[in-house]
């Protein structure tokens, strides 16, 4: 351990997404290659001697206790736990959650050390993994509110790879097996004979960790919500969601030293007639078993919506991934301006 292939794979994956800024401590981690990376893991992160590093991924993460603070993290999967190496700006950004983070090291702030906070979720504490729509994100749930983390990969490939690696590592855990189901085939397990529709697709791993995937009702609920926002102008039957993607809205901050731009996380939904931006709650739904009350906000909150027919042009940047798109709409305040003019002009 580790094999040459694994070393090469982990080195390739150790790249911070170019559009996101991280602290000096995480930049140091991103600069490590091959053996240096494995040694760093065993010297600074691993909790027991015989655990193996199996997968590395850079992703934005959200915690259940701090649902409004999205922070960049280096996610390390070993044979014992999932480690989230966090940007130290997160601790400063969320001072009121002092009980959530142990601050023994706060006196080191003025020294030459660059500290990172490491959040550990042991595989033995893992209860379920919820995969988001179109594999854009996934939520890992442990036994309490402190142990719920969402990884916003914004990339189906990264999500799929992590889930595969996690399943492989969970297979190594020694847990008592679940009792075998009695004479149940796939269709009686997941299908409803009346409607022919799939129920919530739930895969129970041999380690008894549940992997829960979205069912078709979730898309139906989303289509209904989108139709509501369109003021009922469209027939729900003909409404198709063509694209669902987690993106960032770029807000230019003028007046700063270099007109910087801040990135606001948004869910972009494209239908055959409209383009919508939603603020989505990626961490609170579906409700964890111990939740005593519903979350303070809805899963989807409309931030902006425009008709495709008002789209004037789309500007594309030539930089590499992630691609920047600028949608330019005709700025007509009253969408039914022409119709109203006609009515006023030609009488009652």
Automatic annotation (TrEMBL):
Listed InterPro entries: PH_domain-containing_M2 (IPR053015), PH_NISCH_C (IPR057714), PH_PLEKHM2 (IPR057288)
Instruction: Keyword check for tRNA-binding, yes or no.
Output: no
Positions of transmembrane segments: none
Can you name one GO molecular function term for this protein?
Answer: kinesin binding
Indicate the principal place this protein occupies in or around the cell: cytoplasm
List, for all copies, the residue spans of the domain called Nischarin C-terminal PH. 241-347
Annotated localization: Cytoplasm
One of the GO biological process terms: regulation of protein localization
What is the protein named?
Answer: Nischarin
Organism this protein belongs to: Eudyptula minor (Little blue penguin)
